[in-house]
Please model this.
Amino acid sequence: MNDLIRITAGVSIFGIITFFFSFSLNRTEPRSNLLLQSSFVLAYFFVILEMTGSTNSFYFPLIYLFLILSAFYSIIVSTVILVATISYFFFSELYLKNQSIQNFFITNGSNLFALISVTFFSIFLGFRYRESIVEKNKLEKYTKSVSADRSKDEAIFSNIGDGIYAVNTKREMILFNPQAEKITGWKQKDVIGLPCKKIMNLKNDQSISVCEKDCPALAVWNTGENVVREDLCYPGRGKSDIKLEGTYAPIKDMDGKVTGAICVFRDVTKKREVERMRSEFVSTASHELRTPITAMSGYIELALNDKVCKVDSKATEYLNKAFNTASAMSNLIKNLLVVTKIEDRKLEYTITNFALKDLAEEVIEVFQKKAKEKNTELKYDSNPDPTIKGKVIGRSLDVHADREQIREVLNNLVENAIKFTKDGTIKISIDYDNDFAKVCVADSGVGIPENGQKHLFEKFYQVDNTATREVGGTGLGLYITRSIVEAFGGSIRVESVEGKGSKFFFTVPRSLD
Model:
């Protein structure tokens, strides 16, 4: 009993001392603090248990309750309580009561087995319980995240300035935002689940049904790539048709399987009307200006003709400047008309098979005089034995395009090369691959600054340097050149070093014959 009193006193004193440290420990390590406090409570419990009869005490079943509850909180706490309980038995029976080991296991073996069994079973249940709590918390967190994302998506869809609709693989409506309602006149609650054709019933600019003949949703499902349509027309409900531009993209699930398609579209009726008015104005103004400028150029040519009239050298100089200015205006008007036709998709093409080499030689012959005036050699760099990766080309070298339009491309590139080359060389060469003929127009002229190369094929763009200011131009030639090349499925690019010349490359599809 004296030992028990001493132990009780020691535990009490140690508990009072550490009590003051538990406040700071609770802020930094709450689990450790709980374990420490539980240890003191358990120590007092064991003292009480010993004083009331050890395993025969009516408090003894509380040990099982401690073990079960602690297992649901923490495996570590439960294990510490189990070890402390077993230690208590050893201390109580072997030290305080002086029992032998054999009698100890005979007397308390069943209790030890029961304690260990209850502890491990409780730990298993506690682990599953904590696991379910973690999963529940994850699910709640994920649900909140999905709800937040859904709210965010709905806010975006509701407030975006473009119309949006989506269809499933049966081409039934599954999404229809407020802007789509505004453009079409349909309400979301009325369209969800209905066939897209019944709601949109889109046609192209030739009044052919897009939904039946050329459905963009099917196109994105088949190719897996976005489709941009600028020729859509929505038949207005009780009003005039609405011109649309739409971008279609596939909708895929987590496994990459296509589950639908989404379209972002906008009403471009007013924009198309403005473009039409602009085109009409440019076309009308250009035609009206062409006649007087042509007449002006003709009269100036007559004035410069020695057989028609005599003018002094000073007047001849002025007339030459006037003639060059009139020619530049005439060229500008011609280019404006071509650009208008390109943008309105009204530029007509006559596709034939022809020899690109013969066309290049014709262009060289036309510009030979201008090249010599600038002391520049203009020549065709022939390849007597064309091959593709070492293999002789088997079929015809003809290309498949509009001959006169490709002539215009060569004219623009050669004329530009002559403008910016003096006392140098201009070469035209042609290489072939399985699908395309690649033409190179290379000069040894002034070259193009690197920061200007990426904008070179844009409309009205001119490189801002001394050479371009002296030569002048409309800024439309290379834009027209690019548009023509791309119309036949080709491409164009430039390689240039300022002060060392330029190389323009463009491709033309080869004929299949």
The chain has 18 helices and 14 strands. The mean pLDDT is 77. The chain has four domains: 2-135, 160-267, 270-347, 348-513. Residues 101-159 form the longest helix (59 residues).
